[in-house]
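Think of the structure tokens as a kind of shorthand, similar to the way a musician reads notation: each symbol stands for something richer, in this case the local conformation of the backbone. In the example below we present two proteins back to back. Begin with the first one, reading the sequence and then the tokens, and try to describe in your own words what changes along the chain.
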Amino acid sequence: MTTEVYLVRHGETLFNRLGKVQGWCDTPLTSQGISDLKKTAEALAEVHFDNMYSSDLKRAIDTVHLIKDGNRVSQIGKIKKFPEFREVFYGSFEGSEIDHIWKATSRTAGIRETSDVTEIINTIGIYKFREVVKKADPRHLAENTEELNLRMARAIDRLKAATQREKRVLLVSHGDFIKTLGIKYWEQSDGLHDIPFPTNGSVTRGVLTDSGKFEIVDYNCPPEEFEA
């Protein structure tokens, strides 16, 4: 059975508002984030889902429950949580100013110092970018390309095992993780250069086939595009 996967980015959090790096560390949804998610929930309220899933981080769990509570046509039980769908891990950069990590990364890459992550990725490529972030991390704990690719593969395998009898599911994840999936699996990505960062509450639609192949067909879309 082919399964449609609605990947939703969680709502705005405190660290999003403050411009801080938020990978595996967690901060609560803001009032603006909750308000925006209610709009996402309303847009998807008449879309039937066989199940809903989430990353195991609280900002994602809170998001999926807001969407679940607003859905009028689905019977969803207990939410299953997948650690594999956590945000990208930034090691000792966690909680730092976002501009700080990208300036450190550009310096380590030996290019012009910049806080523009798109410029960095498009200059050195996404694979080298992950390696440089790990090298720039003072404790070298940030996920590199191999670690992140292995986790993405595990995430898809776990989702495939969980959704064998489900035609459409919703899964709440995180901006950089969804973007990294998009770079690898979106038909409009060349697999090397940067793509737009998903907005809070946006929907990225993927298709998971019987063979386990995963493909993203709609990326970073307003939830209103999927209203029933």
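Once you have a description of the first chain, move to the second and do the same.
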Amino acid sequence: MGFLLMIISILLGIFFIVFGISHRDSKHWHKISIVLGTVLVLFAIYLGFPK
């Protein structure tokens, strides 16, 4: 379960970061998308640490 959650989190995080960078013309949505993507990537890295 943890491995699947890590994979989903990293894929969604990368998607949100790319989406935020490519849509810079919107006012605040690109910033929110980049922050959300960064949080998801950091969460996936946290899940990858041995416990």
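Compare your description with these statements about the second chain. The chain has two helices and no strands.
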